[in-house]
């Protein structure tokens, strides 16, 4: 196993940062053009992430490491940055031991979700800014998804467009968010939860980090939601703003998953759409 998916520039940079490193395992997801490799050098383990030409995730992840992850890294709850280049779309972090929560027995453990809530509260508490254009921009993003290829029924598209047209656009309070907060990005080691994958990190309303959990884990077991909120400390989901977020998440999930060929995730998006469009 080698570094064949890296560009010549990425390969050269990695040779300077970790000379003689050996690839031990490929953790790449396969649906997006991001290579994720577990490597070793001089007995130490690292994670190498390399983006393709159109990648925007590495820049976001690098910014998150530099600006927002200290509350986690100082506790050993997130991987530490070793080196990175936004221009080359390449970064290296120290390997963080642990088992993915997704697909394990930990996924149904309220204690794990309580820890995840505590961690998320640390991220969100660092800074808050007011953005007068956030809601308008998110509406435009959802309408753009509806113009792209998808398999949402025409009647559903009409209803979604009509609803979005009625939404207010009040100023929004934005905080540092993970952007994909769910068991797929949580590790457990000796009973302690830590966090990985910051390629969608950005300033957003705090409640947007509840979206994946609400559509998946909280829906499966309300006890997980109660434990998560106990760890987080409050529930930031004001009903009207949360409704808008659920609709946007459903549209984005159904359309994005269709475009990358993830049929299981696309089906989840259509279920989310059915739930938000169901009569109240």
UniProtKB/TrEMBL annotation:
Record Pfam families: APH
Keyword Mitochondrion: no
Matching SUPFAM superfamilies: Protein kinase-like (PK-like)
Alphabetically ordered keywords of this record: Transferase
GO terms, molecular function: transferase activity
The keyword Isomerase appears for this protein: no
InterPro entries: Aminoglycoside_PTrfase, Kinase-like_dom_sf
Domain of life, per lineage: Bacteria
Classification via Gene3D superfamilies: 3.90.1200.10
Domain Aminoglycoside phosphotransferase intervals: 38-242
Descriptive protein name: Aminoglycoside phosphotransferase
Native organism: Micromonospora endophytica
């Amino acid at each position: 196993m080698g570094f064949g998916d890296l560009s010549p520039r990425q390969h050269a940079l990695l040779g300077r940062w970790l000379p003689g490193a050996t690839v031990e395992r490929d953790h790449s997801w396969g649906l997006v053009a991001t290579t994720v490799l577990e490597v070793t050098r001089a007995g130490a383990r690292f994670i190498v992430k390399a983006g393709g030409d159109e990648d925007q995730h590495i820049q976001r992840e690098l910014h998150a490491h530099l600006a927002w992850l200290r509350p986690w890294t100082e506790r050993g709850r997130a991987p530490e940055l070793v080196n990175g280049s936004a221009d080359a779309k390449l970064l290296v972090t120290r390997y963080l031991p642990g088992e993915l929560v997704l697909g394990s027995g930990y996924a149904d453990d309220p204690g794990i979700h309580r820890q995840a809530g505590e961690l998320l509260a640390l991220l969100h508490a660092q800074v808050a800014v007011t953005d007068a254009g956030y809601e308008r921009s998110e509406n435009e993003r959802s309408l753009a998804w509806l113009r792209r290829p998808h398999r949402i029924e025409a009647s559903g598209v009409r209803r979604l467009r009509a609803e979005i047209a009625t939404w207010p656009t009040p100023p929004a309070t934005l905080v540092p968010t993970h952007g994909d907060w769910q068991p797929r990005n949580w590790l457990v080691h000796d009973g302690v939860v830590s966090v990985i994958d910051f390629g969608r990190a950005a300033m957003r309303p705090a409640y947007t980090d509840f979206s994946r959990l609400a559509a998946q884990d909280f829906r499966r077991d309300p006890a997980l939601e109660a434990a998560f909120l106990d760890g987080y400390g409050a529930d930031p989901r004001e009903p009207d703003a949360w409704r808008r977020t659920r609709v946007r998440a459903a549209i984005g999930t159904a359309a994005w998953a269709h475009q990358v060929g993830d049929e299981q995730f696309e089906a989840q998006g259509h279920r989310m759409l059915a739930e938000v469009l169901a009569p109240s």
